[in-house]
UniProtKB/TrEMBL annotation:
InterPro entries: DNA_brk_join_enz, Integrase-like_cat_sf. Signal peptide: none annotated. Coiled coil: none annotated. It comes from Nonomuraea pusilla. Residues 206-249 are annotated as: Disordered. Residues 218-249 have a biased composition (Polar residues). GO terms for molecular function: DNA binding. This is Phage integrase family protein. Keywords: DNA recombination. GO terms for biological process: DNA integration; DNA recombination. SUPFAM superfamilies: DNA breaking-rejoining enzymes.
Amino acid sequence: MEDVDHWLSSKTGVLGTRSLKLIHNILDRSVRNAMRRDVVKRNVVELCEVPAGRVGRPSKALTLDQAEAVLKAAETAARRMRAYIVISLLTGARTEELRDLGRNHVVAYDLTRNSWQAVTDAGWEHDQFAIYVWRSLRKSGDTKTVKSRRSPRIPVHCVTARKALLDERAKGESVGTFSESRVLGTRNETAVTAEKVRRDLRIALKAPKASTRRNGHRGSSGTASSRCSQLMTSRSSTSHGWSATRTPS
């Protein structure tokens, strides 16, 4: 027993508490199997307590104040960048997922049809909206698997940002700069590059190059969407609980 306690204590400097619990469980299971074969007579591992491991790295997610500041800064950003910031921050969608988000993957719940329809067909005069996060631009070329796909609803703030982007196009402002097939695409019908996203994000937030953390939006989505629901009236939620094989409900 003392040997097991000493061994677990020696790992506290390199492993976290969760990892210590895992190796404790593995050792406990191994001794139990040995008892079934009469190799050992007693399981002393179950008498040992798991010590606390080392502290993990600080979270990279934005704080509540930082998330509010980002949303406020997005209001004065270019329309496309505003939509990108708001949608990614409030839904938790990854950078590579939003860059290839098709216009037909933004859907609204049509009460007359009792089903989810693409806003390109159903329009924007509805109460509930969602996005189909089914594709991803990855360096390896792999797309998302069926199990990794999801269809989160989007809050009203995201809808407002998207409408503003469409209104700018309808009024003839910045003609030829938007994609016909992608929500945040380019005029050449290609996805916006990661480099351009980072550059536009730094401009929008007036942040130095080293401090721009585009993936921090994903980890901050829970905090931001919770606060957003308190600040604005919304009938939508940001749950990620739907599978790729069925529409949101």
